[in-house]
What we know:
The chain is 67% helix and 0% strand. The protein is mainly α. It folds into two domains: 86 residues; 89 residues. The longest helix is centred in the N-terminal third of the chain and has 20 residues.
Amino acid sequence: xxxxxxxxxxxxxxxxxxxxxxxxxxxxxxxxxxxxxxxxxxxxxxxxxxxxxxxxxxxxxxxxxxxxxxxxxxxxxxxxxxxxxxxxxxxxxxxxxxxxxxxxxxxxxxxxxxxxxxxxxxxxxxxxxxxxxxxxxxxxxxxxxxxxxxxxxxxxxxxxxxxxxxxxxxxxxxxxxxxxxxxxxxxxxxxxxxxx
Length: 196
């Protein structure tokens, strides 16, 4: 699909109007899509996948945990995100509730050891980079650490080049620019070297 995310969200809203949904519901989903558009802009996302939807929902659940938004709003933004992913994948929207395998990259998916490392790493870059850059770096690093857990690499001292290479190969197709993936990893590896 060659449409921009903004164009695609408008298409999704138009489809929802034909269901038809009430005008208030359309306005509500429009608000959800404004959050998704900001998220995509901050993270340089140009094509919205199911994994992007799951990542977006993970960020919203962290906002819930921090008291920034209500859980019900996060759940509705999840629905909006997955409808957008449906549209990118199929060209249409599935309104009926379907069971999905929501893959949530949140701190709860991470070992205590890696959770502490991520928290300390985020604190180390928070004052030296723009907020959007910090969010991007932390998001990629969170994925990387969860990936290491999945590869049964539970201790950062066991990290080697094969883990890094396989993670980049796995994630690269989801990024328009590989720099958006490799730059956060380089920052994180630099942090680990300084901590040795």
